[in-house]
Amino acid sequence: MNTATPPLNAEALSALLPAMRRIGREIVVLAETGSTNDEAAQLGRAGVAEGLVLFAERQTAGRGRLGRKWESAAQKGLWFSLLLRPAFALADWSRLTTWAAVAIARGIEEALPGCRAAIKWPNDIYLSGKKAVGILCESVAGPGGYAVVGIGVNVNHARDDFPEELLTKATSLRESAGAEAEPLDRHAVAAAFLRALDGLYPALENDFADIVAEAEARSFLVGRRITVHGPQETYEATAEGLEADGSLRVRCAEGVTRLVCGGEVSVSAVF
Ligand code: BTN
After folding, report:
1. Could you give the CA distance from residue 236 to residue 231 in angstroms, rounded to a whole number?
2. CATH number of the domain at 225-267, please?
3. Can you tell me the mean pLDDT for 223-233?
4. Ligand 1 near 37 CB (within 6 A)
């Protein structure tokens, strides 16, 4: 099924954004690149100011967390990266993933009224129990340091646009809108994301507790039995909530509480 929509256009997208903004101050759209995160990092090294957003219609080497490949079907999704230079301590830059997840969840609900976007800690957005969005934050410390927040959103994919191995795990915004839904206007969806990211950006520094509270309320994991695939060990636990820094608090056997800061978490099979 051909669900491609008109090519993204930076001017058309800018026209949907408020004149005064930080995120999306400059917008670049590439027809194709390896990874938008790599392109944005190159601009970061070159000293480009924070707020630039770089989209690509197709990525040939899109990547996710833990070295995974990210499928980036041409013109079906929104594959983009933000270049940021947060003014707060580097130790807190890990907040960026939670901030981006909450903002993208809000953007999805604005673009698809009635839809509920859940956050699967730390970096995925789930719609109806399947992954529609992945977020990859990368940063370089030191003088001239910068962060790149890469966001991949499956927007207009139909079932047969996903490779075999993702069929049971992935979804798109359009699929979540219903079997008969028309392709979504990617400019409108992208604009909803950039407005939400921009609107929530000051809270990253000043009201991060509010962002964490919303991420917890939207959590796909809290209350569920999960498997934590840590760097040293794999164990079963129940997801309890989020800590002030955005890490995941879990309860293991014998009531022991542990904090998960990285690695991978999956929902345990229920028999
Ligand atoms: C994940 O699910 O592990 C994160 C996926 C992040 C994918 C996006 S697409 C835009 C940006 N460029 C990349 O190479 N990756 C991110």
Report:
1. 14
2. 2.30.30.100
3. 93
4. yes
